[in-house]
Every structure is written in structure tokens, then in C-alpha cells.
Write a structure and sequence with these properties.
The chain has 17 helices and 13 strands. The protein is α/β, with parallel strands linked by helices. The radius of gyration is 21 Å and the shape is globular.
Length: 506
């Protein structure tokens, strides 16, 4: 969750704009051949040919994590490694040798954000020291799906503690349990939060696939600043069962990967009908293959809206030439671009609604856990006061939750108003201009709208500035439009070749 996403993204733009003047266009990266940057498809092909094994992949990534995450530039994106990973990989290698391949993720390592339950030796703590104790008794639904598809759960990633709901002054990417995650492109630049560890880890080549979670901005912001693909699905497309809740009206897990196809493969693996999740998916989505529409010409004849401020030569084009270049790439690839005005509702009451959600759902989640030092919001607050972590950060959001008075009618009315007005803005824009999707720069207002509506969006790398800070573009569309958005993002990816590997600059 990133309550102050709009302000944070504005500050992000300022960071980026400092380096824009006179910057050359991003160079097309060379094809990747190093093991740590291979795609899921390529890893699978090499394992099929006997050139690689899941054990060798896991060993290589563990060594890389030791060298670069724990030592060297010390990205600090991994909060815990799975001690069973090599044993799991060996078992999956044996299955492959016997001719049993579960699917495209067979033997592929995946890192999970540390608010996603795993019933193994690892903790699920949301980054909080208060939550360290006995591991979860059951895998989250999406983890069950990943294991069934043959993925190797490599470890857990760091995050902004409590999904950035501990204190507004805490730096993005910091948790009491995990410390501070760094941005692998420029170590002194924020990795953004709350899925900072997932974004930084996949960018740095610590795993081909990571899973983040988002309430408002927590996938799309770290995807932008770490220069990776971040898919925030429609709320309810992926199950939330077994994920530490913040606001179930908005919460969702989502893929964070280096390529669009990898994101689609990860989405395929995690998707499924969970009776325990209150959101019921349309029947048409059952068995959906999110790779089916990934074609190089997928931008042809698509109507895509974009901020009207980029419609003519002016300050916006000077301030953000890489977004202007991205629009040119899309148009050259066959897209029809439509300038649009995008409204940004104020959504009053959002912090109150989030606090009430935390108050309601955290005790329900804690009731599923045993062997922890806390079993209520009040005990979390007391624990954090007594053991705030070495940096001594505050816990204003947690105190706010402790003091909020929960009222069911008020709670329901707040969320109904917030979601209705934000969804209406998107629906009206798409209908008025007959758009397949909208693409935005990260400096424009409106990124919060997608999250607050519960609608899908995908953040895409668009290049990198001379300072080393990644740039990005954000596609979003109608509810349940993930297949279309992935197709558009894939078309842009294939036309732009914009993603860059990190250089670990100081």
C-alpha cells in the first residue's frame, strides 16, 4: 500500500527530471545471455535439453543473492531464503527426468513478498518484528497454485512494513525485520514501496519471477523505479486468501517480472477460483490463458488514450521526452493515440477507510496464526512501541488504527463511495473515447484512481536516464481487462526493447 502515491510519484518525476535535460534516448539493450536474466521460456528450454537443472538455477541465484543482496552493493531485497529450495528443485528435476512436466513454471524459482503465507520453515511477517514466530499453518491460495505448477519458492522479499501502513515518515522499502531495501539501478534512489523487495530482486537478477501485493500503488510504484514489469490485477482476479490483509476492497497480489510474457505466465499459474475469496470472477475468465494475445503486432488498430498535455509541442514533452518517445513508438507500431483529460477524484475518507479495514481484518488474519507474540492490533502497537527496530521509526498509522472506532455502516458507505467514483472516472473515459486502454506517464495525476477503483494496470519500462534512474509508462483499462492490457504492453515491449539491467550505481 502506498497511501501517498500521488505525492511520491510527483517526487519521483522530480528525481527523474533532474537528469532529463540533454539526455540521450535509451539504447536498445543487448540480448540477455546470463543465467540470472534468462526468461522463463528460455530456462525451460535449457532444462528440457538437459543443459540446465532446477538445482543449478537455484544454486546460481543463491550465490548471486549472497554476493549482491547480502554483500557487495547489499540491495537487501531478500528478507529470508527458503532452506528447502534445493530439495524442492531436486525433486522437480527428478520429475522432469521421468517425463512429468507440470507446466511452464516447472523448476522455475519464484520469490514471494513477506506478507504471503507459506506453510514451510519461512516466516510470514509483513516485515514486522511483532509477527516473527511460528510459520503459517497453510500456504496462501496463490502459493498452493504455484507449488502445483512446479515453481520453486526461493524465498521471501522485504517490503515497507505492514505494506507501508506503519508510519508515513518511514522510508519506502524499510521494515523493522528486514531493514532498508535499495534500488539496484541507483543505490541512493528510493526503491519505492511497499513491494520494494520484489521489484528490486527481479530487477537485480535474484529470481526470474517475483510476487508483490498492492492496495494502492505498491506494485506499480516499485515496478516503475526498479525498471521492471508490474501487473496490478483487477481486485479479486487473484485470491487474497492467506495474504496479510490491509483493505480487502483493494488488496491484490500481482506479478513483478522482467518481461510481459513472464508476467502472463505467472498470472496463469496463480489464477484460479477460490471459494474463500468474496470476489467472484466472471465465468468467461475461467481457464483464461493470458499469453494467448501476446503478439508483436498487438498494438495495431488499438485505440489508446494518453494525457492531453503531450498532444502538442510544449513543456510536458520537454520535461518528459522519454514518455513522448514511448508514444511515438506506440504510434509507429500501429496504435491510434487519442489525447484525453483524466480526472482525479479527491476520494475523501481514504485513510479512515484504510484504518477501519486494518482494524476489521488484521484480527481475523491473526486468528489463523498461532505461536506469535501478538493476537490483536493493540498488542501489535504495544510490541512496536517497545521494539521499534534499530532505526527507531514511529508507528503513527498503527496508533491511528488502534484509536479508530469501527462502524460497519460507515465502513461500507466509505468504500462504496470511494470505489464508485473512481470506477466511474475510468469507465466514462473509456466509453467516451471508445478506448481499448489508456497509457500514462508516472508524473501525471490519476495513478491512485486505478487502485481505488480496483481496476487493472501494468507498469512498463520505457528506458533509463543518464543518472541511471529507470523511466516507465503505465497502461490501464476496464475491469477484468488483463488479457488486453498484457497484449498492449507486449506490443510496446517488442517495439521498444526499453528495459535495462541494473548497473548498481552509488
Amino acid at each position: 500500500m502506498d497511501v501517498n502515491l500521488k505525492g511520491r510519484m510527483t517526487r519521483l518525476s522530480a528525481i527523474v527530471l533532474l537528469s532529463i535535460a540533454g539526455a540521450a534516448h535509451a539504447q536498445t539493450p543487448a540480448p540477455e545471455s546470463r543465467l540470472e536474466y534468462l526468461s522463463v521460456d528460455e530456462l525451460g528450454k535449457r532444462m528440457d535439453r538437459g543443459q540446465l537443472t532446477a538445482v543449478k538455477i537455484v544454486q546460481h541465484l543463491q550465490q548471486r543473492i549472497e554476493a549482491l543482496d547480502k554483500n557487495g552493493p547489499a540491495i537487501n531485497s531478500i528478507i529470508e531464503l527458503n532452506p528447502d529450495a534445493l530439495e524442492i528443485a531436486a525433486s522437480l528435476d527428478q520429475e522432469r527426468q521421468q517425463g512429468r512436466i507440470r507446466g511452464p513454471l516447472h523448476g522455475i524459482p519464484v520469490l514471494l513478498k513477506d506478507n504471503i503465507d507459506t506453510s514451510d520453515q519461512m516466516q510470514t511477517s509483513a516485515g514486522s518484528l511483532a509477527m516473527v514466530g511460528q510459520p503459517a499453518a497453510q500456504d496462501a491460495f496463490v502459493v498452493q497454485r504455484l507449488r502445483a505448477e512446479g515453481a520453486v519458492i526461493l524465498g521471501k522479499t522485504n517490503l515497507s512494513e505492514w505494506a507501508n501502513f506503519r508510519d508515513p515518515e518511514i522510508p519506502p522499502g524499510w521494515s523493522g525485520r528486514g531493514g532498508q531495501t535499495k534500488n539496484p539501478h541507483v543505490l541512493s534512489v528510493t526503491p519505492c514501496g511497499s513491494s520494494s523487495g520484489s521489484g528490486a530482486a527481479v530487477a537485480a537478477g535474484f529470481a526470474p519471477l517475483t510476487v508483490g501485493t498492492e492496495t494502492s500503488g505498491s506494485i506499480i510504484c516499485p515496478a516503475s523505479l526498479n525498471g521492471v514489469v508490474g501487473l496490478k490485477p483487477t481486485t479479486g482476479l487473484l485470491s487474497r486468501s492467506g495474504i496479510v490483509p490491509l483493505a480487502p476492497k483493494l488488496d491484490t497480489p500481482g506479478p513483478m517480472t522482467r518481461t510481459v510474457r513472464d508476467a502472463a505466465l505467472l498470472l496463469n499459474a496463480m489464477a484460479g477460483s477460490d471459494d474463500a475469496d468474496p470476489v467472484k470472477q466472471p465465468h468467461a475468465l475461467k481457464g483464461m490463458d493470458y499469453t494467448a494475445l501476446l503478439q508483436p503486432d498487438s498494438l495495431v488498430a488499438r485505440r489508446i488514450g494518453y494525457p492531453v498535455k503531450f498532444d502538442a509541442s510544449g513543456q510536458a514533452m520537454k520535461d518528459d521526452p522519454q514518455f513522448s518517445e514511448a508514444l511515438e513508438v506506440m504510434q509507429a507500431a500501429g496504435a491510434t493515440l487519442i489525447p484525453v483529460e483524466f480526472k482525479d477524484p479527491d476520494s475523501p475518507g481514504i485513510e479512515k477507510a484504510l484504518s477501519m479495514s486494518f482494524k476489521k481484518y488484521i484480527p481475523k488474519y491473526l486468528a489463523t496464526r498461532t505461536g506469535l507474540a501478538v493476537d490483536s492490533v493493540e498488542e501489535i502497537v504495544r510490541f512496536t512501541e517497545n521494539d521499534p527496530g534499530t532505526e527507531g521509526h514511529g508507528h503513527a498509522f498503527l496508533k491511528q488504527v488502534e484509536n479508530v472506532v469501527f462502524d460497519e455502516p460507515t465502513y461500507n458507505e466509505l468504500w462504496q463511495n470511494i470505489q464508485r467514483e473512481n470506477a466511474a472516472v475510468i469507465d466514462e473515459l473509456l466509453a467516451t473515447h471508445q478506448l481499448d486502454a489508456v497509457v500514462m506517464d508516472v508524473g501525471s495525476p490519476g495513478l491512485n484512481v486505478i487502485s481505488l477503483a480496483g481496476y487493472p494496470g501494468i507498469m512498463m519500462p520505457s528506458g533509463i536516464e543518464e543518472s541511471g534512474v529507470p523511466t516507465s509508462v503505465f497502461f490501464f483499462g476496464a475491469r477484468w481487462s488483463e488479457a488486453t492490457l498484457l497484449a498492449l504492453a507486449y506490443g510496446y515491449e517488442q517495439a521498444s526493447h526499453a528495459r535495462q539491467v541494473p548497473q548498481f550505481k552509488p
